[in-house]
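Two proteins were folded this term; both appear here.
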Amino acid sequence: QAQVPRGATIIEQTRGTAPGLMCPVGKKVMYAMPGVPHEMHDMLARAVLPDLLRRSGEASVIKSLVLRTWGESESGLNERLDGIIEELENNPDGSLPTLAFLASGWEGIKVRLTARAATTQQVQQVLATWEERVRAVVGDIVFGVDTDTMESVVLQTLRSHGHTLAVAESVTGGLVTGRLTNIAGASDVLMGGVVSYASEVKYDVLQVPRGPVVSGEAAIAMARGVKKTLHSSVGLALTGVAGPAEQEGQPVGTLWVGVCLADGSEYSQHFRLATARDQMRQ
């Protein structure tokens, strides 16, 4: 707080004790500000942004668009978009957007396009053009945009078709229903959930036939049972083995998903997932 690097300019402090600094480094400039949010915001608005505008000579708008994807690895996604990435990196005048990946666990992989232009309308046009280009390559795995989540998209899709949903969970212990209830307005689609962790609950509450409970048949029976019990048009069920030991001869990481749709059709799908307990459940 007491020393100033040679050639630097002080940003006066108005809300605390630590001043900020503007430090020229060659043709660039480094700004140093306090980490206290209200102090930093004040300096940013009062000194940094005006200085950037003075240095650039023109105002500009920077905007990002995020495509939410699921079902592809980060390296696989990078490979698919190789041609577009190469085109965007060959951008001497800065007129093209940048592209970045952000792996986000059970939120999928985000593909972020960031563009700069003189006006909001122009920057939106640039983003729309390159969004179309990216979707042409990876559109089959894009499930949402910006603040969309997998669960908000699922709820909206069901809502648009006039469907309601009930969920039966064994291995996930309520995680799926919990994510769905995080979305405001979910109650007009989600009827509820049954955490049928013990086999007896599957038999007694969901009317699953007695026998193995880690199978496609059991997953479908759970979906059918929760749909009937909670009076929904769609039933979804998950059963599997999270560990630490195998169950019914099935290894840790086994998952069966069952779906019972409004027209009465029923499906199941088998997955082999990561064997770490929390990761597998997520």
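Next, the second protein.
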Amino acid sequence: ATAGDSWLGGDDLDIALASAAANAFWQQHKVELRHQATAWQQLLVAAEAAQRALSHLEETVLVFSDGTGRGPITYPVSRRSFAELIRGIVDRSLETCQEALKQKGLRPTDLSAVYLSGGTSYVPAVHDAVASFFGQEPRTVLPPERMVVVGAAVHGALTAPPAAQ
């Protein structure tokens, strides 16, 4: 089965974290960073770096500039607070899993193995939610970035018409 949410991806995690930092900045300085293209882009890059760091650290700090020359601005974030920020996004991805299972008349516990794909697979909150949903630890035979390609190849092979001889 194939299911997906074309509007859901790793950028959503970056945006959630960057938005939290922008909200905190607004409360302190009354400056809206989302309306400043350069500052917002720097904040998104910092959020992605923080997301990666939180894959192996319990806490990290976003460091970015608001473009006014104030110097670097910091926004501390913990793995736990990040998990809370992205909970809705993770739930949306599990709804996609549920839809794919429904197409085949399966339950999450019917699967013998679960493989994660994409860079967000490294996010502990994603890994833990998938493990809980499917009732088993996801396997990590290949790097998750390669699993996207492997999954597409397998799907293509299964759905392609037979080759002409």
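The beta strands are 59-64, 73-78. The chain has a mean pLDDT of 89. These notes refer to the second protein only.
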